[in-house]
Design a protein that fits this description.
399 residues, Helix Hairpins, 2 domains, five-stranded antiparallel beta sheet, 5 strands, elongated
Length: 399
């Protein structure tokens, strides 16, 4: 009996001891889990704070780019309106200068044919009376005074024309630079927006507690990161392409500078030119394109290319469509017959187009050197067309 009681007591002690150990282990396990959860919560809080800061920063960058885009577009509208006004004023002044120049030429021819001052003296000597002679002297004075006034007005209008042409060219150049900045900012904006989407998805993934949702968000995040990487690569490629195009323009300008001054481009018999024969040839010597007093036109535009090929062309002549009027007002001859070395002018679009004639063939076709045929500003100077009919050319400016 005593052995059975002792056994029960020992068994009871073992059970109590085991229960105590289980209670201790269970408490320890919960504390570890709670500590782990608290550590996870703390880590997530810090990550969420960092993610929120990243989202805020990228949103600010996107807003800044959008704001700059709006400002540049508004400035371009203003500058284009200003250019329209200046173009109208330039045309009016050019017409006056051309008409006045023709009138002065006619007077000079008449004076040369009729004896000039001799006729004035004869008119006074042949007067019927002193009062008639005085009247004729007064009339001659009025004619001379009118001519002097015309010459003075001619000089004033020429000076005013030059000022307006410079203002117009500055507006054109600024619009072109703004367009290039807008194009670059558009690529950057897409990159920033893609990165913003990544940051927002990353934040959402951190905040969710449902594994399935988190998994889906992580997949979206991976896709968004791939899109952001692709956008960044596209931005880099666009910048490299723009830099390469600018360098190519300068290279081609240097390599073809002498083309219109060499016998190789004189008028020669022609044969049919296929598209493969008309493929452009671009120089490869490196150079940096910058605006300068020697060429004030927007780099990469057709006007810039013609000025690079034909340095005798004036600066500040405006868009290509204005060149015929600007050239006439500057004293250059214009016409409808193509000549090697002359500038061909097209006016069948808002901006127009210009090129340098490098060959005139017996069949009436011509060849030209030009750039920016597609309006992108990235085409270097080259012979893109081969021999073609000049029916669409509005006129030519002769050196």
């Amino acid at each position: 009996m005593k052995k059975r009681i002792l056994s029960v007591i020992l068994l009871s002690g073992m059970i109590l001891s085991t229960a105590s150990n289980l209670t201790l282990v269970s408490a320890t396990d919960y504390e570890a889990q709670i500590a782990a959860k608290e550590a996870t919560i703390s880590t997530l809080s810090a990550e969420q704070s960092a993610a929120k800061e990243q989202v805020t920063a990228i949103k600010a960058q996107v807003a800044s780019l959008q704001n700059e885009k709006a400002k540049l577009e508004e400035e371009n509208k203003r500058l284009e309106a200003e250019s329209e006004r200046l173009i109208a004023e330039i045309k009016e002044l050019s017409d006056k200068i051309i008409a006045r120049t023709e009138s002065l030429k006619n007077q000079a021819r008449s004076a040369q044919q009729n004896g000039g001052a001799t006729n004035y003296i004869s008119a006074i000597i042949d007067a019927d009376s002193i009062s008639d002679a005085i009247g004729r002297i007064a009339a001659i004075r009025e004619v001379v005074s009118a001519n002097e006034s015309m010459l003075k007005q001619q000089e004033e209008d020429k000076a005013l024309l030059e000022t307006k042409q410079e203002e117009n060219q500055a507006a054109i150049n600024t619009v072109w630079e703004n367009q290039r900045t807008l194009a670059a900012n558009e690529v950057s904006l897409k990159t920033q927006q893609a990165e913003l989407e990544v940051a927002q998805i990353n934040l959402a993934a951190q905040l969710t507690t449902v594994e399935s949702e988190k998994s889906a968000l992580l997949q979206e995040k991976a896709a968004a990161e791939a899109a952001a990487a692709a956008a960044a690569a596209a931005e880099k490629a666009a910048r490299e392409q723009a830099a390469a195009a600018t360098a190519a323009q300068a290279q081609s300008a240097q390599s073809v500078q002498a083309v219109v001054h060499t016998p190789a481009i004189q008028a020669t018999p022609s044969v049919a030119v296929s598209s493969s024969q008309a493929a452009p040839v671009v120089a490869s010597s490196p150079a940096k394109v910058t605006y300068s007093a020697a060429n004030t036109y927007p780099a990469g535009q057709c006007t810039w290319g013609v000025k690079a090929l034909a340095p005798w062309v004036g600066n500040y002549w405006g868009n290509a469509g204005q060149w015929l009027g600007s050239a006439r007002s500057a004293g250059y001859s214009t016409g409808t017959t193509p000549q090697v070395g002359s500038v061909a002018v097209w006016t069948n679009s808002y901006y127009g187009h210009v090129a340098v004639v490098t060959a005139v063939h017996p069949d009436g076709t011509i060849e030209v050197m030009e750039c920016n045929m597609d309006g992108s500003g990235t085409q270097p100077i080259a012979n893109y067309r081969g021999a073609f009919s000049p029916n669409s050319v509005a006129g030519y400016i002769y050196p």
